[in-house]
Amino acid sequence: MSATFIRILNFVPLAAAIAFGTAELCRAQSTTAAAEEPVKTVEVEMRNFAFSADTIRIQPGTSVRWVNRDEVGHTSTADEGEWASPLLGPGESFTQRFDEAGTYTYHCTPHPFMRGVVIVEE
């Protein structure tokens, strides 16, 4: 056997290992990317003692982020107890993900006249 032929034989397993490893890495990245769908987030501001949207309509899997743009503390509290934010100071936010279809009414605990509705549609 020639020296060149022996070098080629030694290179073949290395090339196969590199190709196989690269293919596995690409498949793993592709599977991970397909499994992770981007989460959509809708923002509702708390401003002037009101929620910026009285009613919002979203799809399952969407998150709602309440942001306090007021000078006083507010909450986002579900009327039926599904969620309750802490008291949010100016500039603070709270996020809730909605996975199930339904109508969710909510209010601000210190200011119960502040009311809103999240409708999760199929």
TrEMBL record:
<dbReference type="InterPro" id="IPR028871">
    <property type="entry name" value="BlueCu_1_BS"/>
</dbReference>
<dbReference type="InterPro" id="IPR035668">
    <property type="entry name" value="Amicyanin"/>
</dbReference>
<feature type="binding site">
    <location>
        <position position="74"/>
    </location>
    <ligand>
        <name>Cu cation</name>
    </ligand>
</feature>
<keyword id="KW-0479">Metal-binding</keyword>
<dbReference type="InterPro" id="IPR052721">
    <property type="entry name" value="ET_Amicyanin"/>
</dbReference>
<dbReference type="GO" id="GO:0005507">
    <property type="term" value="F:copper ion binding"/>
</dbReference>
<dbReference type="GO" id="GO:0042597">
    <property type="term" value="C:periplasmic space"/>
</dbReference>
<dbReference type="GO" id="GO:0009055">
    <property type="term" value="F:electron transfer activity"/>
</dbReference>
<protein>
    <submittedName>
        <fullName>Cupredoxin family copper-binding protein</fullName>
    </submittedName>
</protein>
<keyword id="KW-0574">Periplasm</keyword>
<feature type="domain" description="Blue (type 1) copper">
    <location>
        <begin position="42"/>
        <end position="121"/>
    </location>
</feature>
<feature type="binding site">
    <location>
        <position position="108"/>
    </location>
    <ligand>
        <name>Cu cation</name>
    </ligand>
</feature>
<feature type="binding site">
    <location>
        <position position="111"/>
    </location>
    <ligand>
        <name>Cu cation</name>
    </ligand>
</feature>
<keyword id="KW-0813">Transport</keyword>
<keyword id="KW-0249">Electron transport</keyword>
<dbReference type="Pfam" id="PF00127">
    <property type="entry name" value="Copper-bind"/>
</dbReference>
<dbReference type="InterPro" id="IPR008972">
    <property type="entry name" value="Cupredoxin"/>
</dbReference>
<dbReference type="InterPro" id="IPR002386">
    <property type="entry name" value="Amicyanin/Pseudoazurin"/>
</dbReference>
<keyword id="KW-0186">Copper</keyword>
<dbReference type="InterPro" id="IPR000923">
    <property type="entry name" value="BlueCu_1"/>
</dbReference>
<feature type="binding site">
    <location>
        <position position="114"/>
    </location>
    <ligand>
        <name>Cu cation</name>
    </ligand>
</feature>
